[in-house]
Every structure is written in C-alpha cells, then in structure tokens.
Amino acid sequence: MRKIFATVALLAAAGGALSGCSVSAGADDGKETVVVGYQSKTINTVTAGTLLRGLGYFEKRLGGRYRVEWQDYDTGAPITAKMVAGKIDIGSMGDYPLLINASRTQGVSAARTRLVSVTGYNLRGGLNSVVVAPSSKARTLADLKDAKVSASSGSAGHGTLVQALERAGLDPATDVEVVNQQPPVGASALQSGNVQGYAQFVAWPGLLVFKNQARLVYDGSALDVPTFHGVVVREAYAKERPEVLQAFLQAQIDATKYLHEHPVEAAEAVAKATGLPPEVVYLYNGRDGIATFDVTLKSRLLAALDHDQKYLKSIGTDFTGVDVAKFADDSYIRKAYGASYDADATGTVNAARISGTDAACGTTAGDPAKAGELWLTGEDTLRPAATPTCLLRQIAAATSGGGSVRAAYVPDAATGTHWFADRSVWVRDPAAEENERFKPFTTRDGAEAFVKEHARAAVVGYDEALKAAAGGASR
Question: Which of 105, 332, 334, 398 has its Cβ near the most Cβ atoms within 10 Å?
Fold first, then answer.
C-alpha cells in the first residue's frame, strides 16, 4: 500500500498523470469505461453493487454513452488500493474501510476521494457480529479471553470487535489473538477449530448461523453505535465526469426504491447473483431488516464515523486522522435526490416496513420493535406477525397442517435486531400480556440479562416455546 501511495504521489507531482479520468477506451466501440468496485456478498451495499448491477439501472441512466466495468471484492481494502492507483472510479464499502480510504487518499489531489452517499445502515450497530462454533462453551464475548478470533483487519467487523472487547473489560491487543483473514477463510477456520471466534460484517454471521455452522455470541446492536456502508468517488473523476456520478447516484436511488417496494424479489435476485441463501439476504435487506436502506448522508452516521477513528487507530492499520466533515460531501446526492433531501436526511424510519393483519392473533402488525414475518415454503409472500408470540402460533399452525418453514424472523426484545426465530434464545415471561409472553433474544447473554430483571421470567427452548404458544399455555 505504501508503494502504491508513493507512486501516486510521484505521478501527481510530475504533472498530474492521474488527475484525469481512469476510464479506458473500449476496443470495439470506442466508449469510455467507468469502473465500479463493489462487494457482492456484503449485501447491505447492494443498491450500489449487486442489485444495482443486476437491474441495469446505472447503464440505463448513462444512456449507452459509457461502458460499465464492475469489479467484485470480498472487502473494501482492495477497492481502496485500486482507487489510490486511479483504477477504480466509484466504490462502496463499510465505515471503517471508508475511513481507511479517506486516510490513504486525502494527501494526494489525484487520488483524493469523497463520501457521496450511504447504502445501508443500522443505528445500533447490528450489521456486525461475533459468532462461535455451535458446540462452543462461550456464552459471552468475555468468554473468548485468550482465544483466537478471525476478523478482516480494518473492517467494520474488526472495529466492532475492538469496541465490544473494550466494553467487556478485555484488552483487544492482549486478551485475544485477532487473526487477519478474509471472510470465507475465517469461516473455514471457525469450522475447523483453528479459531474460536469469528467477527465479521453482513452477511457472514447470519449465513453461518443459518447453515448451523455458528452461534451468535455478540450482537453488534449491543454497542448502540451506528454502523453503515457508503459510496466513495475519486474527486478528480467526479469533477471531470459529473454526469457519470449523477447517473450513478440517480440509479442508486432507483435501486433503493426497488428494494423497498420489492424486498422479496430483491433478496432472491441478490441470492441468485451471489450464491447466498435468499433467507439470509432477506434477514438483512427485507422488511424491517437489520439494514435500513437510505442514500442520504445523515449527521448521526457521520458522527459515528468520527467516533470510530480512535478505534481504527488502535488496530494498527497505519491510519492517520480524517477530517470527516471534509471527506463527506452531500452536494452530489443532494442534486440527484431533489427538494426533499433535507427533510429525509433527518429521518431514520425504514421505508420497508412490516404491515398487515396477523392471522394468529387477529391484530395488526406494524410495531417494528415487535413485528416479525413467516416465510413458508412454496409461498412468494411473507406472513406478518404482530408479536413474537403470535409468530410462534403461526409457525405451529402452519407446521401442524403440513407446511414447511423457510425462515421466520423476529426482533430481539432488547435491541430490535431481526434474527431467525429458531436460532434465537427464548424467554417465557408469565407477567407479560398474553400475546407477548414469549420474548426472543439474539444471544444467551441478552436473554439472561432480561431474566435477571424479571423475577418470573425463564429461558426456554425454542421447541418448548413453540409448543406452549400453540397450546395456549403461554400463561
């Protein structure tokens, strides 16, 4: 990286060799090529990557004037390296990689980048998690003391791990051994037992849990620190080809609207393109999913980005400070978005909401802190549930009638993080109202914290909760 950075600086000093666009003429039709770097499996960037590419909205907005080259990577680091070298024009990545991107490019005008939009975010930090093997004895993050934990150095998942360990009273530098691995490599290492923990970003933790290859031990939402992914552009490119950037941002807005209006179709399209199970994609990108998709640059997200800098410095990634206010530039997305930008930039309501009538309880589903969904095999639409208890009743009724569950989603009773119902830790609270007697939690730690504060509450198994809710024994 230092060699690339030095080369860029020399070229810039020698007359701005990279100050022009990185586009190259096509050999067959003479069209210039705009290069977009994205992460197909980092599924809360899909509105600037996988989904956008599949829908063809960017190409349509360009009107055939340019050729688009899509380059797919597992993490944001190689995208940044290529942006420094002038070989990628527009890229998307997570908050920690965004900071590294800014740090690597801000000192050289030819390579300087700007954060111009957001793809998906979670205000509590739920896009990043730590999982362990299903058979692990670890119940809390503190139980990983003296263990090896796989993480991609400088990633959002790594940043969450550092902050979470600190809050758990552990020294991230000495109490755990962080093994720098790409997400697929780390997943294999966890299964083989070469590492005891796995700290990663969307959608890897959910994927491993869904496949019964891992168990969630730390929900990033417990940090209550916003996390997000965003779009960066080389500033020189944005100035020389403003029409291309505007087309990209308008296309991203189009893709975001499509995802809001067609969450199931979008999840299935992303699943087909990436090989991920659609049930996992929907967990993050579906109605009231872990990720909220909104292109605006919100002050809370930028404040969190600034907050993350001290943790990124502690990781030892050769990171220098970033002026976030200068790095973030909403002038481009503001122009593409239109008159409602200021009002919408202050809002944080997920535009893709669970709604409808709960068939089991006969009530309306709509409260995001309680509402869930049931996805049955053979059905193209998901059934809304007003509360987790009502969802259990729907599952019991469907399966007793011969139905098969593809996935069932419930919000954590404390953090609101959506999770798979059959992978959640359930608590029975006899003191609660009848339709809210069973409460799900993403982790055992979270469930036990609730039990400590509610004298009659107790942790129960999923099958026990299902049977009790179905039989009306929730009292």
Answer: 105
